[in-house]
Each structure stands twice: as structure tokens, then as C-alpha cells.
Design a protein that fits this description.
- The chain has 413 residues and is an all-alpha fold.
- It has a single domain (29-412), classed as Growth Hormone, Chain: A (Up-down Bundle), CATH 1.20.1250.20.
- It is built from 16 helices and no strands.
- Helix 4 (93-113) packs antiparallel against helix 6.
- The longest helix has 49 residues, at 2-50.
- It is globular and about 60 Å long.
- Its main location: membrane.
- Keywords: Cell membrane, Membrane, Transmembrane, Transmembrane helix.
- It is a multi-pass membrane protein.
Amino acid sequence: MQTSEQDAPQGAEQQAHQETALSRGRIALAIVALSMGGFAIGVTEFGIMGLLQEAVADLDITIPQGGHLVSAYALGVVVGGPVLALFAAKRERRAFALMLLGVFALGHVASFLAPNYQTMLAARFISGLPHGAYFGVAALMAAQMAGPTRRAKAISAVLAGLAVANVIGVPVVTSIGQIFGWRWMFAIVLVLALATMIAVRAFAPRQVPAAGASMRGELKGLRNRRLWVGVALAVVGFSGMFALYSYISPVMTDVAGLDAQYLPFVVGLYGVGMVIGNFLGGWATDKSVLGTVIIAMSLVAVFLFAFGLSAGALIPALLFMVLVAVTSSMLSPSMQTHLIDTAPNAPNAAASIHHSAFNGANALGAILGAQVIAWDWGLRAPSIVGGVGAVIGVLIALYAVKLTRDEEFRRRN
């Protein structure tokens, strides 16, 4: 009997340990499932850039017009992110994520079948609508599962799907698109979206919103200067990276002298930089949110200028391209966390607005790049313009630090 009494606590302890291990395993699987959605989104968002020349030839348009295929998707994200996030306020998060993935899938059916340039622009816009809201709800789900001390790492794990897409998915669809036709990218993304829906339904737990959550509460929570300064920071600061990457295909072939068959290697290399930067950003953000933003954005500015000046030589161009990828991707988890912090009463809208801002930067960068190319400033010009945007972003980040310190002072007093 004595032995039984001693063994009972040990058995209970072992059972509790197994339940904890199972819970951690379930969390890991859920985060991987959510990250799969980021992978699919990354393939469609960045894959079009590696296939820009094929799209231009197929649709019989100019390179600046081809850049608008990037901008149309990005504008869909800008519009859809905050609007759809408001509807998430009182909805169970897993079901809402599945609905968004369904819309994303339908947009890619329309893109694959689009008969002309105008229809393709509309299909790209529709495909972008659920992007920001999906990342927003996925980030909130991951942060809640991981807890407050590991939230930035959990968010960076979800965002890692976007980065890994540039290592694996984008080079693969670029190769397939060059061989079989660029539209097959949309079919591949459709399959990825459907697989993500299955995985999220199987592994992600249900999450009900906080008590008292409402669309009105989310709207009230957006009345925050720090939030909108953060949005401006993301739009301006990130635009430099997109001014470079939107035209990476013609820059590498026409300026750096790379054979077009090696473009999948280039976008894969960029993706490696994104993966490294994403995890560095998650680690650094858990130590200092805005400190990470300032350091990373300052480095983005330096490396964009360096790329523009050295793009005529292949090796330096590749080196500075990767460094832009690393430093710009460090901004993703830090900016996501900062925007959530600025609007604690509007978590869904704040989380999704990050991706609207990110894609506002995508649209702005692509449009600015198209304009300076149309002005015959050359294919190096977009990265120089992007460097200027990153410098402005640093100044906005310093102002964000001031606002944060002022708010903390008011709370203490």
C-alpha cells in the first residue's frame, strides 16, 4: 500500500508531463499548419516577380504595366486587411482563417483562367483581399498558443512560411513557369491553399475571441496615433525592398548580366536571406521591438544604396541583394509585434493592418519603380529610390520611439 501511495504521485506527474508534451506537439503542428498558409501567400506574392518577363510577353504588355500585376495584389491586401479583420472581431478564429483561405483559393482559380490583362489585374486584386486578415488572425492564434514570453517567436514562425516560400516555392514556380507557362504558378498556389485548409482544420485549435470583443470596439481601438505612425513607418520603410525586388528579374539579366536560366537561383538566394532575417527579427524583437525596427531599417537603407551602385557587377549585386533580404525581413516580426502593442483593444485590426501596410509598401515600391523606369532613369533607379524611402522610415521610427516613451511616462504619472 505504501508503494502504491508513492507511485500515485509519480504516475500523476508522468501523466501531466505527457499531456504537456502532447499540448506542445499540438501547438507546434498548429503553427506549422498556419505557416503553410504563409508559404502559399509567399509563393503568389513573390513568384510573380520572378516570372515578370514571361507575364509581360504572354499578356503583350510593357514592364511597367507588368509591375502593376504586383501592385494590384498588394492593393487587394491593403483594402482587404483592415476591412475583413473588423468582421473577425466576434468570430471563432479557426473558422475565420478557413474562410479567408477559401477566398484566396478562388482568387487563384480566377487568375489561372483570366483571359486578358484587365481580368488578370482584377483576379490579382481579389487574391490579395484575404492576405492581411489571414496573417493577422494566424499571428493572434500563434501568439495566444505560445504565451506572452514567446509571442514574437511564435509570430515569426508563422511568418516563416512567407520567408521559406522564397527559398523553395518561388524558385520552383519560377522554373516551372519558365518551362510550362507562368500561369501554372496560380494552379500550384491553389493546391497549396487547399492543403493548408486541411491542415489548419486538423491541427489548429478553436479560439473564441475575448469577451466583449466587437466590431465597434475594434474601430474604437484604432483611434491611436502610435498605430498610424507605425502604419506609415511600415508603408514607407518597406517600400524600398519592394522597389528593388519587384524588378529583380530585369535588373539581374539586363544590368548584372545574369543568364535568365539562373533567375530561380537568385530568388532562392533572396529567400534564404528572408528566412535568416525573419528568425533574427523574432529573436531581437523579444528583446527590443522598436530597437530592432531602427537598426534593421537603417541597414536596409545602406544596402539598397549599395545595391544600386554595384548592380553592374554580379557578385556585389547578389551580396547586397541578400543583405537587403535579411535586414528587411527582420522588420516583419518587429513591426507585427509593434502594431499589436499599439492597439491592445483592436487586436484583429492591428494584426492585419501590418500586412496591409506591408503590401501598401509593396504597391508603393512597385509603382515608384515603374515610374522611374518609365522616366528612363534606368533599372538601378528603383533601389536608389527605395533607399531614400528607408531613410525616411528610420526618421518615422525615431518618432515612434518618442511617442512610446511619452505614453509610458503618462502611465507612470
